[in-house]
Amino acid sequence: MPRRRRLSEIERSTIAQDRRNGVSAASLAAHYDVSLKTIYNVVNHWGERQTANGSRSRVVGIRVSDDDLRRFDAALSRRGIAHRSDAMRRLMLAAEGVFLPDDEMCDELRNLGAALNRVGNNVNQIARRLNEAKVRGERLSYPASSHRDVRALAGLVFDLADQVQEMSRARRSLLDLEISSALAGLAERDENGAE
Predict the structure, then answer these.
(1) Domain ranges of the chain
(2) Could you report the per-residue pLDDT of 133-166, keeping only the tens digit for each?
(3) Model pLDDT for residues 179-193, shown as the tens digit of each residue
(4) Where does the Bacterial mobilisation domain start and stop, copy by copy (predicted)?
(5) Calpha distance 49→57 (Å, rounded)
(6) How far apart are CA 174 and CA 178, in angstroms?
(7) Which site among 19, 96, 151, 174 is 20 to 30 Å from 136 CA-CA?
(8) What is the CATH number that goes with domain 1-58?
(9) Sign of torsion over alpha carbons 31, 11, 97, 112
(10) Nearest to 102 by CA among 182, 167, 166, 183
């Protein structure tokens, strides 16, 4: 009998929430690659874990510096969110989407690295020819083509820096959207006095 993978706490929470929102057990089983029985067990056990007053079952503690906590609170304040615990809970549930690598960025960085390697190889060949001439006591030859290769490398390095900076900005914007989506609704809830 093949062994099924173990569901994480976040996956269990998401499954229970999705079932409450009407997602079929069959589609959840297919999505998480588990049996229907596992889905039903997760939903039943998750409901049992809630206490009579609806509180959550675990407390998670972390240590942060005063500066880190101030920055986090400031970020929540800019979004109009008053309750740190609600924000942390939402961010934890959204972590799967936020912490995924950006495949497009990885491909672009590989392409930029390959271009840099090609030009770098040309510069290495220039340096080797100059060193060999120096060792033999010959006049150092630095033709116009070598000068062009060095200038091309310098231009490429600046272009790479600009492209990496732009990719970084784009990734930050995407993460900001993901985080904003995860925290959506908390500010309005806080304004209405809900805990």
Answers:
(1) 1-58, 60-195
(2) 888 888 877 777 777 777 877 787 788 778 878 8
(3) 777 777 776 665 665
(4) 116-133
(5) 6
(6) 6
(7) 151
(8) 1.10.10
(9) negative
(10) 167
